[in-house]
């Protein structure tokens, strides 16, 4: 289980506790993206494996580092759970199931699929709807939550993303990248919690930046060469 | 080719100064050779244009520009544009490499911690082998 954490000192201990209780057999890796709070000091005491980035790189670099670590440690299935604790640990099995069954290479946990019962604030929801429509059209598959950070990656996705995970705040682009490289993606509904602590990293400016990047990725990704399988 | 007016003298002086400053920066090691090239090309182009005013006149007539010095401006804007695009590409590449470096440093840090823990365990198990 891969937990990207940026200034999550308040929610991290609780999250680790819950993750361990839910998935006793799984390794937990926290990747600290140059936090400015006590996150870094907490890590050694949590009893988890951890990486700490010496300068802020954003979610993309955090996940890339985490996946490369996982790969070197011989893990081939990775679940990404955000450090703010908003992803319910009791639903990890739901995102994992299609990967365990070998049906797909990556699974997104969607807050907006039927039965998720989560509602984001108005303007953010509207922006996400537009993004969702774009991404769905681009990969010819219905995606309802393109900015979700709740993911499960199977072996092919772990290998690809350990080197090629997009940079910054890249979730919509990630969907495009996976589809473009012929990986199978699916979405499952999850029930969301309010985040335990901390604020959403999705500010209006950032949503705008994400939308711009996604639009660009929509135009450019199809023109890019695909990554040959097994090229790390 | 004759020096006809002060502005031409100034243009030559400025172009020469650009070339000299760039060469001096490279000599001091403040600018690497690969990045100095684009500036030297700019300086050389400006120098040529300010020496042979005829080029401006001829090309202005050919391009249908009524005011020949505007050609100079056009060339300067063009070089500025190419230079900033080039540097955006350089910066993008650097950003990618820096991110990789940060990620690798984190992985190496984890490896060091692991090896230290292992070494600590070994020492605890066999204190006689301690240096």
What features would you describe in this structure?
The complex is a heterodimer of chains A (232) and B (131). With 232 residues, chain A is of the alpha/beta class. In chain A, 40% of the residues lie in helices and 13% in strands. Chain A has eight helices and seven strands; from the N terminus they run E-H-E-H-E-H-E-H-E-H-E-H-H-E-H. In chain A, the strands form two sheets. Chain A has a four-stranded mixed β-sheet, with helices on both faces. In chain A, strands 1-2-3 form a three-stranded parallel β-sheet, covered by helices on one side. The relative contact order of chain A is 0.17. The model of chain A has no long low-confidence stretch (mean pLDDT 84). Chain B has four helices and no strands. Chain B is elongated. Chain B has one domain. In chain B, 10% of the residues are buried. Chain B has 131 residues and is mainly α. The chains are: A alpha/beta (232), B mainly alpha (131). The A-B interface holds A 31, 49-55, 57, 60-61, 64-65, 68-69, 72, 167 and B 95-96, 98-99, 102-103, 105-107, 109-110.
């Amino acid at each position: 289980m891969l937990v990207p954490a940026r200034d999550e000192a308040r929610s991290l201990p609780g999250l680790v506790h819950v993750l361990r209780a839910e998935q006793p057999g799984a390794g937990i890796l926290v990747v600290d993206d140059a936090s400015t709070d006590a996150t870094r000091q907490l890590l050694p005491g949590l009893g988890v494996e951890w990486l700490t980035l010496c300068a802020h790189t954003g979610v993309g670099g955090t996940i890339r580092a985490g996946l490369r670590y996982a790969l070197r440690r011989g893990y081939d299935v990775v679940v990404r759970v955000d450090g703010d604790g908003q992803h319910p640990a009791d639903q990890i099995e739901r995102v994992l199931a299609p990967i365990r069954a070998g049906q797909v290479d990556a699974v997104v946990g969607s807050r907006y699929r039927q039965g998720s019962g989560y509602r984001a604030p108005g303007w953010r929801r509207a922006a996400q709807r537009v993004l969702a429509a774009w991404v769905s059209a681009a990969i010819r598959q219905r995606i309802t939550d393109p900015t979700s950070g709740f993911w499960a990656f199977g072996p092919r996705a772990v290998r690809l993303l350990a080197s090629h995970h997009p940079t910054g705040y890249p979730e919509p682009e990630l969907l495009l990248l996976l589809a473009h490289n012929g990986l199978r993606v699916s979405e499952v509904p999850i029930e969301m919690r309010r985040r335990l602590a901390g604020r959403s990293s999705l500010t209006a400016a950032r949503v705008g930046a994400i939308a711009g990047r996604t639009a660009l990725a929509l135009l450019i990704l199809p023109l890019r060469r695909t990554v040959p399988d097994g090229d790390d | 080719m004759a020096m006809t007016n002060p502005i031409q003298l100034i243009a030559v002086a400025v172009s020469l100064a650009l070339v000299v400053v760039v060469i001096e920066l490279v000599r001091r090691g403040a600018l690497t050779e690969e990045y100095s090239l684009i500036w030297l090309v700019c300086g050389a182009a400006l120098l040529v244009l300010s020496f042979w005013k005829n080029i401006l006149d001829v090309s202005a007539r050919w391009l249908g520009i009524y005011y020949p010095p505007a050609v100079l401006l056009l060339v300067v804007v063009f070089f500025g544009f190419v230079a900033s695009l080039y540097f955006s590409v350089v910066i993008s590449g650097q950003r990618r490499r820096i991110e990789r470096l940060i990620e690798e440093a984190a992985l190496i840090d984890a490896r060091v911690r692991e090896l230290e823990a292992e070494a600590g365990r070994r020492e605890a198990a066999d204190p006689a082998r301690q240096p």
